[in-house]
Specification:
32% helix, 9 helices, 12 strands, six-stranded mixed β-sheet, alpha+beta, elongated, 332 residues
């Protein structure tokens, strides 16, 4: 029987336009949902301090590389769950026209995130891949976007009838054959809006595994690729963060928050003044209101259509503030 390499469960994602706090939330949610320890990111640019803080708060360790040629954008990063079993040892490697981060991660072995932008040449893209497999410990997984399209994996090219080809895609197929590597791609386009696939994992021939997609919720044009995840069809879009067609009942929110805060403060701090407009009451009420908004539990009035159907029950402000209050109590 042929030898099989066990692939680490990991995510590869072109975050497109730099890594922000909102994208960190999408990433960490996907890592938790799919039980992934490693994320290979492209187009991270220079990581913003807020994004680094958000990653650390989520229990992640980040290693990054960024462009040094004066151009904006680009960049690559390796995000690993912070754990004693997942020690990260960076491997020094570089190639002109490419940004890459390569490291050995705990028991998984060497992995790499590679980005080659469209302004780089095809020779530079193939040279970056040559540099990786020439390492003494070549990566067992390369999560990459080198902007290469081919009919083997790009739906947009397959749909064309004029026989158009992408020179970089042709060069990548030739390189994969020469290097003895496999491209692992999702079943549908990794860029749903454009109908194209440029994101993939490159692995040894013994490392075949399924690749599934996770929708980026509008934070990036690229979906997240999950290696070792369950086979799935097109990603389901995220629900909207806020239903703007239903007005928020701010008066009900404020009154309910005030009442609940006063009740709690009287219990835990009997000597504290807890009048309706005292500073502690107002401050705590605003915090509770912020939690309500962050958890999308603000009570809302009827939309114009629903207003014509009064029999439909409405969310109760006291009920939703109780849910937020329970959530807040768990944080303390």
């Amino acid at each position: 029987a042929a030898e099989t390499t066990t692939m680490p469960r990991c995510i590869s994602w072109n975050v497109q336009g730099g890594l922000t706090v909102g994208k960190v939330a999408v990433l960490t949610q996907a890592m938790q949902l799919h039980e992934v320890d490693i994320a290979l990111l492209q187009e991270t640019a220079r990581l913003s301090p807020d994004a680094v803080v958000a990653l650390r708060a989520a229990g992640m360790v980040v290693t990054s590389a960024f462009r040094t040629d004066g151009r904006s954008g680009g960049g690559a990063a390796l995000v690993v769950r912070d754990s004693p079993d997942l020690a990260v040892s960076r491997i020094a490697v570089a190639a002109p026209g490419a940004e890459m981060v390569c490291a050995t991660v705990g028991p998984y072995g060497p992995v790499c995130s590679l980005y080659v932008g469209p302004h780089a040449s095809t020779a530079q893209a193939m040279g970056a891949l040559d540099a990786l497999i020439a390492l003494p410990s070549a990566p067992i997984v390369i999560g990459t976007d080198i902007n290469a399209r081919h009919v083997s994996w790009c739906p947009a090219l397959r749909a064309r009838t004029d026989g158009a080809t992408d020179p970089r895609g042709q060069a990548l197929v030739a390189w994969l054959t020469k290097a003895g590597r496999l491209p692992l791609v999702p079943p549908t386009a990794s860029r749903p809006g454009a109908g194209t696939t440029v994101d993939m994992f490159i692995v040894p021939p013994s490392g075949h595994a399924e690749v599934s997609l996770v929708d980026a919720g509008g934070t990036s044009d690229h979906s997240l690729l999950v290696l070792g995840g369950p086979e799935s069809g097109p990603p389901a879009p995220h629900p909207p963060l806020r239903r703007r067609h239903r007005p928020i009942l701010w008066e009900s929110v404020d009154e309910s928050c005030m009442a609940r805060v006063r009740q709690h403060l009287r219990t835990v701090l009997p000597g504290l003044p807890v009048g309706r407009r005292s500073s502690p009451t107002v401050a705590c009420a605003w915090l509770l209101r912020a939690i309500l908004e962050a958890q999308n539990m603000l009570p809302r009035g009827p939309s114009r259509t629903e207003a014509r159907r009064p029999q439909i029950p409405r969310q109760d402000a006291v009920g939703t503030s109780s849910k937020a209050w329970d959530f807040w109590r768990t944080l303390h």
